[in-house]
Design brief:
Layout (H helix, E strand, L loop, with lengths): L3 E5 L5 H4 L4 E3 L3 E4 L8 E5 L5 E7 L4 E7 L7 H17 L10 E6 L8 E6 L2 E6 L2 H5 L1 H11 L6 E4 L16 E4 L6 E4 L2 E4 L15 H10 L4 E5 L5 H8 L4 E6 L2 H14 L6 E5 L2 H7 L6 E4 L11 H18 L4 E7 L6 H15 L3 E7 L18 E7 L1
Parallel strand pairs: 1-4, 9-10, 14-15, 14-17, 15-16, 17-18
Antiparallel strand pairs: 1-3, 2-6, 4-5, 5-6, 7-8, 8-9, 10-11, 12-13, 18-20, 19-20
Helix pairs in contact: 2-4, 5-6, 9-10
């Protein structure tokens, strides 16, 4: 297939020489023809030399690079990239453990497939497009995925209604594009949970907290645990397996609380240690006593873009200050930010300010990030989005 050429302004190829996978609209000198959004284009330097091939899109990021080789983006391309991604998950052990069938198979730029996310839940893969280009290629991707993971994956669910650019007006609907199964129970490190890929956030579960949940389990013995912004209750049932004496789960969404209760029941039927509350986080923190000595703060992204950064940092300070104020002496706080625009330094400063406001003595036990199946492309540091601290509060 012949692709249209995108010509860069002089000097604008420097980031591409360092293999950064984004080309901004301001770097483009001119385009031969009029590519449609989502179309594959070739990128040439100001000296007319080939440098990359990628998906064209409307917006500040004009091209998402798929390859720095002059190659066709065809069925063989998708098969190769997905094979490499699967082999990496096998190499790090998440795709080969008998007690775990939940992991991220493709993490966008981290797997050299910008705009694509694929999460695996048992025999179902949930495919999510964050760019029009990946949406256009969804059937080819699904076919390659079915071939690469034959015998492992039986169903592929496409879930991109809320992740595609709304201005593209694609009229996208979620649904199965391969197979179709009502079985939505998956296993993570021996614990079972329902995955709401139909209406849930992201692909239905926050796979990126797996290792951090596992760490929390080691600290839960005999503690009174508060899991704020619990969503589907992941941290809650790890705390229970870790021997917590009580676990309270809080989320503003009644649907999330229902799912949390169902997940706890899957693993610990009839266990009286757990109670869930559908309530605003700040209101709950205001009215709660000082009964907790292990608190998890894992809020949704407070900042989706740079304009919201200042308000987001105020939110993190306020939230953490409440936890420092209320946590028992000798308590442990797991606190997170999943906002990409909030850097590690931003987040740490917000938490440190909250600690100073509380006057408590606080020590860092762990600095946390996303797990290995959410890799960061070394040439795309923006891919490191999850930040976490485990703190000991005297």
């Amino acid at each position: 297939m012949k692709y249209l050429n995108v010509h860069l302004k002089a000097g604008k190829e420097e980031s591409l020489k360092r293999f950064h996978p984004w080309i901004f609209s301001g770097a483009i000198h001119h385009i031969e023809g009029e590519p449609e959004e989502g179309e594959v284009v070739r990128v040439l330097t100001s000296k007319n030399e080939f440098i990359a091939v990628g998906h064209f899109q409307i917006g500040s990021i004009a091209v998402r690079v798929l390859s720095f080789a002059d190659e066709p983006i065809d069925a063989a391309f998708w098969h190769r990239r997905l094979s490499v991604a699967y082999e990496m998950r096998r190499a790090i052990g998440v795709a080969t453990r008998a007690d775990n069938n939940t992991y991220r198979l493709v993490h966008g730029e981290g797997d050299n497939l910008p705009g694509l996310v694929i999460d695996v839940y048992g025999k179902t893969a949930v495919l999510q497009a964050h760019s029009v280009g990946m949406h256009v290629c969804r059937m080819q991707i699904a076919q390659a995925l079915a071939e690469v993971m034959q015998g492992v994956i039986e169903n592929i669910y496409y879930k991109s209604e809320t992740t595609l650019p709304y201005k593209a007006d694609l009229g996208q609907e979620n649904g199965f594009i391969v197979g179709g199964s009502p079985d939505n129970v998956a296993t993570e490190y021996g614990l079972k949970f329902h995955v709401d890929w139909l209406k849930g956030q992201k692909t239905g579960f926050f796979v990126d907290q797996r290792e951090n949940r596992s760490l929390l389990e080691r600290y839960a013995q005999g503690r009174s645990v508060l899991n704020m912004f619990c969503y589907t209750g992941g941290f809650s049932f790890y705390a229970m397996r870790g021997g917590a004496k009580l676990v309270h789960s809080v989320d503003s969404s009644a649907k999330a609380i229902d799912l949390t209760n169902r997940n706890v029941e899957l693993n610990f039927p009839g266990d009286p240690r757990h109670t869930a509350y559908a309530e605003d986080a700040f209101k709950y923190l205001d009215r709660m006593g000082d009964q907790y000595d292990l608190i998890i703060l894992d809020p949704p992204a407070f900042a989706k873009h740079k304009d919201a950064l200042r308000n987001a940092l105020q939110g993190y300070r306020k939230l953490n200050a409440k936890a420092f104020e209320k946590i028992k002496p000798g308590g442990i706080l797991f606190t997170f930010s999943c906002s990409q625009v909030v850097t590690k330094d931003h987040f740490r400063t917000a938490v440190f300010t909250a600690a100073a406001m509380s006057g408590r003595r606080v020590r860092i036990l762990h600095q946390l990030t996303q797990p290995a199946d959410h890799p960061v492309n070394i040439y795309h540091p923006e891919g490191e989005y999850l930040k976490g601290l485990v703190l000991y509060v005297e």
